[in-house]
Design goal:
alpha+beta, 23 helices, 6-stranded mixed β-sheet, globular, 40% helix
Length: 570
């Protein structure tokens, strides 16, 4: 029997409820959006006790089905003021699936800081968390393991989230126990901090219960086989990881460089901030360049980066971090970036928002481009809630406004991720239209050379990517399996039916994806957003980006066909 759990933090009470198999199928991002809409969260101050914080998983979580154990975190964002779903991999969703806990809702605010602990047999404890306060994520994680044993999974709030910094995310444990898989975007950590929850600890049952075990086992084997036969999965994600996108975007001209002033950091043959340079160097030093962040994943796009002595620095180093905390700040040394990434993980912050914010300080002249010491000092300042830390932790839009800058790369107050919308146009349209703020994960099409395409084709590419991303997020699937998953709709539907005992048809896929987009669009409309909020910052329309010399072509008035679809049911 699947259940949901609502925790009244103010009263320290737990309320369990049975969840039907059909409701479990509509999980993850769909479930977070629906619950937020039902509870009218658009009316609420994002940092008030009333704003819910929802954790939801997909129907295959807890099994060995590859890359199916991501966790969606949903709330009204204190960063964008719209709806937010941030998700992460690791072991937290795996544990929720084995508990058959479809979603967990935090309501109210605890009188004192707590660690929420859920045992294998369904008991809920509100343990004191005072000894963890102020600690970085790595030290806090070790104390959780010392207190509760190694057979746990956790969601952990870093020190920036404790003082409600909008850079803060929520860190999930990875397969080795690192607090390094972040649901990072939108300030979801600040909402957890406002509820005075330092961590959520789950005892991992160790076994998943499914409707038809033989069929699910066969689905697990078949899906793994399909992934291993897919060239994009094995030759790109498995071999190089997401950092390979840095090589592509540098050559393509869509890489953010020095606050989006350029689209290429260096000639491709001299570029050192991508997988073609970093992967062989890391392997030669003894690092891992094929690593699974969640149990059962055969894509294994994660990595463990080591220094010249072979000692671990960070896991993982990914493309978005390379783009925003790296090249967008003028960094050219991957070792320096890895150390900054480690600091960011310890702080529990979004490297996209953080990198975009630091680039604004450099734009203002407060530090030279690519100055590692300057960046390190700013990150270290975030550990304690000083006036400087609280200022930086507001995020890119608010810092840019305070500094009086015109070149502030945000949409709906959230930093644009590592795809220049002048060049990577379909992804740019996604970042404009999604209710999530400037978030590429809402529907990415990073390799399209759109200048050779018609406008209708480009809009359709963005919309299709958005629908598929919404489905994957709702099913708890990592989008890096999309080259297989999105083509195997009937098989994925059959796998869900085998796990739950449902009778879904392949039409379920599109109904689920479009349902998510309309829920989120409706929420933002009720929260006061209009299509004008989708407009790119002016400099994207005014400044040609080298080397291609493109300016942005799309404005909200050009996106009417997408809005017509999103408005259905609003």
């Amino acid at each position: 029997m699947w259940r949901s759990l609502k925790l009244d933090l103010s009263a320290h009470k737990a309320h369990w409820q049975e969840v039907t198999p059909e409701e479990v199928a509509y999980g993850g991002r769909y479930r977070t959006g629906q619950l937020l809409l039902e509870q009218e969260a658009w009316r609420l101050d994002p940092l008030s006790p009333e704003n819910p914080l929802v954790f939801a998983i997909g129907p295959l979580a807890g099994t060995g089905f590859s890359n199916a154990n991501r966790t969606s975190v949903g709330t009204r964002s204190p960063l964008t003021l719209g709806i937010k779903e941030a998700n992460g991999g690791g072991t937290f969703g795996y544990a929720l699936g084995q508990m058959k806990l479809a979603h967990l809702v935090l309501e109210g605010a605890s009188p004192d800081w707590v660690v929420l602990r859920l045992t294998r047999d369904g008991q809920v404890f509100f343990d004191p968390a005072e000894e963890l306060l102020g600690l970085g994520n790595f030290e806090a994680a070790q104390r959780l393991f010392a207190a509760y044993g190694r057979k746990i999974a956790f969601a952990l709030l870093g020190p920036v989230g404790e003082y409600l910094g909008l850079l803060s995310g929520i860190a999930f444990s990875d397969t080795d126990g690192r607090p390094s898989r972040l649901a990072a975007r939108g300030g979801v950590g600040a909402v957890m901090g406002a509820k005075r929850v330092k961590a959520i600890v789950l005892e991992v049952p160790g076994k998943a219960e499914v409707w038809d075990k033989p069929k699910v086992a066969e689905s697990v084997r078949r899906y793994a086989g399909l992934l291993r036969e897919d060239p994009l999965v094995m030759q790109f994600y498995n071999a190089i990881g997401t950092m390979g996108m840095a090589d592509f975007q540098n050559a393509f001209g869509g890489l953010p460089v020095r606050n989006f002033r350029e689209g290429r950091l260096a000639p491709p043959e001299a570029f050192r901030m991508g997988g073609q340079y970093i992967a062989p160097l890391n392997k030669a030093r003894g690092g891992k360049h094929t690593h699974a962040c969640m149990p059962g994943c055969v894509i294994q796009c994660s990595n463990v980066i080591v220094d010249e002595k072979g000692e671990e620095v960070v896991s993982p180093l990914e493309y978005e971090t390379i783009g925003l905390l790296g090249t967008n700040c003028g960094l050219t040394d991957p070792d320096a970036l890895a150390r900054l990434n480690r600091l960011a993980n310890d702080l529990g912050i979004d490297t996209i928002e953080t990198g975009a914010t630091l680039a604004l300080l450099m734009e203002k002249g407060e530090g030279p481009w690519g100055d590692y010491a300057f960046m390190e000092a700013k990150l270290k300042a975030l550990y304690t809630p000083s006036e400087e830390a609280r200022f930086l932790a507001q995020g890119t839009a608010r810092v840019g406004e305070a500094l009086g800058l015109k070149r502030v790369p945000v949409i709906k107050r959230q930093a644009i991720s590592a795809y220049d919308p002048r060049v990577v146009e379909a992804t740019g349209i996604t970042m404009m239209t999604t209710a999530q703020g400037a978030d590429h994960t809402a529907g990415n099409a990073p390799r399209l050379e759109t200048r050779a395409m018609g406008v209708g084709e480009i809009l359709e590419a963005s919309y299709t990517a958005q629908v598929n991303a919404a489905v994957n997020d709702s099913l708890g699937l990592c989008v890096f399996g999309g080259s297989v998953t999105n083509k195997q709709v009937e098989f994925i539907t059959e796998s869900v039916n085998a796990a739950l005992g449902t009778s879904l048809t392949p039409a379920f896929w599109r109904e689920l994806g479009e349902g998510v987009l309309r829920l989120e669009h409706r929420f933002n409309h009720l929260a006061g957003f209009s299509h004008e909020d989708d407009r790119l910052p002016a400099f994207f329309y005014e400044e040609p980006v080298p080397p291609k010399g493109y300016t942005a072509r799309f404005r909200p008035e050009d996106l009417a066909p997408l809005y017509e679809r999103l408005d259905q049911g609003s």
